[in-house]
Structure formats: structure tokens, C-alpha cells
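Standup notes, structure subgroup. Blocker cleared on the alpha-D-galactopyranose input:
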Amino acid sequence: MSITYNQTAKTFFLKTKNSSYVMKISDFDNLLHLYYGAPIPDENLDYLIQLQDRGFSPNPFEAGNNRSFSLDFLPQEFSTNENGDYRSSSIEVQNPDGSRTFSGKVTEYHIEEGKHLLETMPSLRAGSEDTVHTLTIRLTDEAAGLCADLIYSVFEEKDVITRSVLLTNSGSAPVKVGRLMSATLDFMDSDYDLIYFAGRHTMEREEIRIPVERGIHSIGSTRGTSSHQYNPSVILCTKGADEDQGKCYGFSLIYSGNFLIEAEKDQYSQLRLNAGINPKGFSYALAPGESLEAPEMVLAFTCRGLTALSHIYHDVYRENLCRSPYVKRPRPVLINSWEAAYFDFDEEKLLNIAKNAAQMGVELFVLDDGWFGKRNNDSSSLGDWTVNRAKLKHGLKGLSDQIHNMGLSFGLWIEPEMVSEDSDLYRAHPDWCLRVPGRPAVRGRYQLVLDLSRPDVCRYLADTINHLLSEARIEYIKWDMNRSLSDAWSGMLDRNSQGEVYHKYILGLYRIMDEVILTHPDVIFCGCSGGGGRYDPGMYYYQPQIWCSDNTDAISRLKIQYGTSFIYPMSALESHVSICPNHQTGRTVSLKTRGIVAMDGIFGYELDSTRLSEDEKAQCRAQVQAYKRFEDLILTGDYYRLTSPYTNPFFTAWQYVSKDKRRAVVSLVLTDKESNDAQRFVKPRGLLADAFYQVDGTDRVLSGSLLMNAGIPIPFELKEYEGIQFGLTLLEGEPR
Ligand code: GLA
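Run returned:
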């Protein structure tokens, strides 16, 4: 049993294969946190809590004259508010009498088999092979009339524990909730580094690693989406932890809206990690009998370094999060029309691009923005999802049929959450967008945001997308979202509930996606928000691939893809070969290098194939074939970051290894080149030390241990920005 309760010690003991997690009910029924880390036996951990009379650390009334019991320093599972704990709290409420106290005491618990599923948001689910148990601990505040169910599901074999909270108003008057964190995790020490992923439009998820210092370090989003700026997944690791060794804790929030993650090092050098919906602008009016769910947090722990942590997330997200049947299935190699034509196309031009792409081995043609309404630039028509016959004379069906006749499947771009002021939809329903009465709405890329907190808008959108999918044969949808939210006000909510708009927007979005995406399992949905502005576990639940960045420059992508790989499987990442000079950076690198970098994920093209020479098209054909040879490794294998683009200025290398370790593919791009340079070596990882591998395309046969320890020399003649890629295949029998 992965969850046990010890009556005598009053401890809850959660265990996975390689981790233990221990909580305790205090003498006064508070829920304390005792331990999370490497596996330990279920013994008495009481000695870890050293009570002290500490100045200015108040004592709860029930502690009587015991001045050494204070929530100001005790490690807790769910920090109460206004009750003597001055650190970043798990909850903030406004009770019917205006007070802000929440003091939850353990009143009951139960342990059951199976995974707890959230009702309103995506969450992990147990696979047929998984042993999962769920523990629910109820914290009740009688005076406030509130109870918080802390829910823990333990994936024993996968080294994953999920946490979420269900807050219920059990009283008789409404309560305002200003903050409800998904998980609070207290550590009794703080000797850790915090790793997070920060960025901006066209440069997402750069790895930042900082020591945890006194005070609160917070990251998050208030943009209505998880954002380009910060990702809702972070890592805490011991100092010196690297890819191969060190203790690493992962925290990944399954949520696509405003989030907050705080790392607080307190006065006694203890650390609190708090994560959940961002309280800024959030306020939820909880009526009697009503409940509010906090999004699910996926916790993982390993002693074996960052690669092992990544493998835990890659596996559990592929197997237990993403609902698409394509998650481990090959996806068609695509060509996307955006950088090929932008808004400037007609049917003939598109068919020519598709025809040339077919010669390159491409399997799917994706028509990006510009096909609907009168959209010839980005100032109009969002909301009018009817084809522009001036551009596509045979309509969507006509175009799709002709593309299919070439042997390609057909994909389409939509941006359903938005509306242009110059659109029939806006003229008919000006009240459907987010806007504060009496104020003009803030524009972003000339567009306004539809109010997805409204059920009627959600209904309309689900029907519209479903209708579109029936209009023509469409095998792929790129679901885009191109601005940050603002003007949080909804005509459907009363004045007390306006603080719910951003959260309800996300719940509305999830409902639409439940209806559209999960009921069209044959269609591949690709997520996008100006590239990677909504690259989060919530979206991965619905969409097996996400456009990683609007930056298609191969050298920039080395960093973007590297940062993304810490938590997200590379099979969730869409990457394309585009034209040079690159449209975002102006940089020129070889077609070969662009191919190698784009093969680090779900491969495709984003260029005008009619402008490629015959020789270039032949190169592309070879790229598609090369990709197909190891595509299964991307979909199901293990990923290794061989170097970091932040610490190795000379080259960036990465590798896929099949789960049975029989096949691997190593890729490398030279990022800096000096004259008469040092000899450098690339060292594969994750191979069988005692086995022998053939280096594909050569007659070299080397042992796994030699490859991993001495490596392979990087050819001297390789020039700056050039890349190489080679496969390794396990050889049966004796080496030659
Ligand atoms: C966003 C996407 C791009 C492209 C454009 C179209 O920026 O990230 O890939 O689809 O919109 O307007």
C-alpha cells in the first residue's frame, strides 16, 4: 500500500518506488509536514520537529501556555491564515463577518484506491498498469464554515505524487476566496537552487538557475494565460545537482491561466514552496454548499539528477496526462503556410506549395492564418470563420480535396478565442468580449478577447469549431491564441464575482476543448499562443503537440528546446525548418543544421517550397527519411540533454535512446568556432555499458562504456553553426 496512516504516531506515510512523503497531525490537529525525499522506513519522525520558544512567534490559543508551539515556524501542509504563520499562505478568505482567518484542523481522512480526477480542470489519470492510491485529508474551520480537502494521489511506480485542494463552503453565508494554492511544501532546510523557465515572445523558456535566498522569489503570470514570460513548472535541486546526480524536486501545475509559484526562505532558513492560481486579481465568491477546485500540482522527486527528473515527467505526461490517441503515434510531417506566404496567397499558390512539399516527402499541408472573412492582414475578421472565396475559389472543401488528391492530408489554423472589431461576430455581439463598462477595451494585435467565462459564448464556439470540422476533410487543427488578456469584466457575472473572470475563462476554454478536441480523436490538435505562450500541462492534456515558439531560427531554438525539455516530452514540441536568412533573427545557417534542430521534436517545414532548388528538395526528402527512421525514439524513448547551451559555448548536443537501449540518435550543433580549435568530444548517455554499438554510417563499433566515458571526437572540419547527427545501434555478438 502506497499510503498508510499510523494511529500511534498520527502520521500519514506516502511512498513511491524512490521517494517517501510524511505528514503528521499535531497535538492540536494541525497538519504538519515532516519529510519529502529519498525513501525512508516508516519510523517515528517526531524528533525532527524541535519546538522552541521563539520571540515574536505567537502560539495558538489551544497550545495553552506552551510558548514553543508556533505555526510561525512549524512545517505545514496547508498554511492557515491569520493564525500565527506569517509566511506565504495557502489560503486567504474573507469570512461573512469580514474577518480573514482560516484555521483548518484535521477532522477526517480517507484512503482509497485509484486516482482522484478533478471535475473542472485536467488532471492525471491512472493507466491500466498503474498502482495509484488517493488520500484525502479534511481540514475544517468550524467558525468560518469552510472545509479544505487536501487530496494526494500517489503513483507508486512512477515516483509521482499529485496534490490538489477542494474548498467547500459548509456554512450558511457566502465566503470570498482570495487565494487558494494547489500545494504548499515546507522544507526544514533551504540549501537548494531554484530552476525556472523564463522568456518572452519568440524566446521562451530560457533556463534560469538561482540559489534560494532570504525573502520570497516569485514567478507567475497575470496575463490570463500561462504565458511566454514564465512557465508553471519549476525545479528545486541541491547545490551542484546536475544531469547525472543530485536531489531534484519537480513542481508542475496542470493549469493554463494565471499562476503563481513562490519560493520563500524564511527567518529560520526554512523553505516554503507555494504554487497555484495567481491571487492577483482573483477573488471567488463561494456560496453556501459550493466548492472550488485548485488545479492539480504534479510533484516528483529523484536523487539521480535532472535527467532522471525529466524522464519522470516525460513518461507520466505521455502516459497519464495527454488524452490524444496520437500521443505515442507517428504524426505526419507537415508544411505550414505561415512563413511561406503569410496573408498573401490564393488557391493556386497554396497548391503549388503543397505540390512541391509532396515531392519533399511532406505528408500534411497546414493552411495558417488568412483564409477566412476578409483577412488580408491581422486587423480584421477574427470570429468570422467562413472561407474567403476571393482567395480560395473552391472553398475549404475544394482546397482540401485537391490537397488530398496530391496524397497529403489537410490542416487548418484557427484562433477561436478572439474577435476583431471589424468582424460580423463583433458587430452582432459587441458584449461578447472582455470589456469594462464605460471604458474602451485594451487592444492586442488589434484584437479583443471573447469572454469565455460566459456559457453562451462557449456554446457558440464549440458549435462553430465542430461545424468547421465537418465542412471539409480536416486532419489537423492549429489552435492559436494571440494576445494577453485584459479588461477582466464579464456581463454575465455580478459585481461580487468579477474576480472570477480569468479563472472562469480557463474553465470555459477547457469545457470547449473537452467538447471539441476529445470528441474528435482523429484530428491532431496543435496548441499555439504566438508560439509558446501557453505551453503548459493543461494544454498538453488536450493537444499532443504545441508550437514551441514563433522563433524558427535554429540557433535560438537550441535554447528554447533545451528549456522546454526539462518537463515536457519532446513529442509535445513542434519544430519546423524555415527559410534563411531567418525571418526572426536574420541569421543564416545550413539547411542541414536547420533539419537537425527541427528533428528535436515533431518535425515539419515552414517555408515556400516552390522556392527551393531541386537539390534543396532532395535534401529535405532525405531529412524526412532520416526523421522517420528514429521518430519512434522521439515518441516513446528517453531524452538526454548532453550539453547545456548556457554552460557550453562551443556546441549543443542532445540524444534520444529507445527504452530497451538498443537504438540511439545523437545530434549536435557547433555554436562557436575558433581557428585551430581544441579537439572536443560528444559523450552519449543512457547506453548499456557492456554492450557494443555500431556508429551508423561508419564501420566503427564501440562499447557503451567507451562511448559514454571517452565519447566521439567532433570532426575538426565542422564549421560554426554546422551540425551532425548519428545513430547508434546495438550490435548482437562480438565486436568486429
Ligand atoms: C501566431 C502563431 C504563428 C502564426 C500567426 C498567424 O503568431 O504563433 O505561427 O500562426 O499567429 O497570425
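Discussed briefly. Residues 651-730 form a domain with the Immunoglobulin-like fold (CATH 2.60.40.1180).
Next: hand off to the docking folks.
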